[in-house]
Amino acid sequence: MRLNLDIADLKALARRRVPKMFFDYADSGAWTESTYRANEEDFARIKLRQRVLVDMTNRSLQSTMIGETVSMPVGLAPTGSTGMQHADGEMLAAQAAEEFGVPFTLSTMSICSIEDVASVTRKPFWFQLYVMRDRDFVLGLIDRAKAAKCSALVLTVDLQILGQRHKDVRNGLSAPPKLTLKNILDMAMRPRWCAGMLRTERRTFRNIVGHAKNVGDLASLSSWTNEQFDPQLSWKDVAWIKERWGGKLILKGILDVEDARMAADTGAEAIIVSNHGGRQLDGAPSTISVLPDIARAVGDRIEVHFDGGIRSGQDVLKALCLGAKGTYIGRPFLYGLGALGKPGVKLALDIIRKELDITLALCGKRDIRDVGPDMIHRGPAMD
Ligand SMILES: Cc1cc2nc3c(=O)[nH]c(=O)nc-3n(C[C@H](O)[C@H](O)[C@H](O)COP(=O)(O)O)c2cc1C
Question: Which of 1, 2, 269, 272 is within CB 3.0–4.6 Å of 305 for a Cys-Cys bond?
């Protein structure tokens, strides 16, 4: 049996174990996928300075994100339909994050509900909000997140309308999958996945079904979701959402210096520099390429977090050096989950932790809070 030593190994195993429709849903970007690819490729171009003969004992990866202590500054990004990568996926990933000591963010478009996740965790998790046209539903979601004691609201601002992923259209993506001959044959090749799905009752969007008006069944759900993302969402809405929530607010999906400055004016706790993992505006720059300018523009007016393209602990370190206080992984934990369930999410985190720790040491540092742009090699890259 092949050892799972890096995130690419977990991806290969997930590809075998997760039905094609859901594996592709994770491993895809909008249109030509150029931004999705750039997120990963631009990391590879950045080189680190190797330092020697410095004391490397007693290293620490512990830090804080929006004032919460984290065992390393790497949270789990909100991802929709996670319970389709593996039965009860959100509950398992939240538990893995809790045991690891890092934040878990539950998507509005999750399979397991806010209440499902709260029922299997002790530490507060974070909730990601999509603003729908049905404002009563949105207010209800905010109140449910409060009642579940979520400790931060992550407002996603880069999905007022949906980018198109060709693979999802070709695969006829739906949750649960439609029982076409093609899908039945595909699922028959993934017995573990099927067994898990047969055991659980959580197979559709449980934050929505039974909570939104006129959405009681699957047929009404898909038309509801397609119409509901609010294309009129504006900076003004951030104010009432912040007020209704009353707790820590994070704005996710900032990719432009101007927007970052405006975000800092809202009084939110943090921004996440993100292009939605290359799933929205294809042709937008990679997140790591814009991070330094954004970090410089906002200074210490707002905490800067980062996601997109992180596939190793080295990538985490590069993002931290270039101005991020915290980072998130999306696909890496989804691959771990699809490959091995909860232990797979922990393995993904552990792989990243080990890589981060060794890289920190080989760069001559002992404390993750002590990294900066001086650790980036400035000479010509030797790709
Ligand atoms: C399968 C999938 C589903 C996603 N669903 C959501 C979502 O529901 N809400 C959201 O704010 N971001 C969503 N994202 C974006 C992630 O939160 C994050 O920005 C992105 O995955 C980071 O890039 P990475 O996957 O390269 O780590 C999703 C990403 C993926 C891969």
Answer: 272
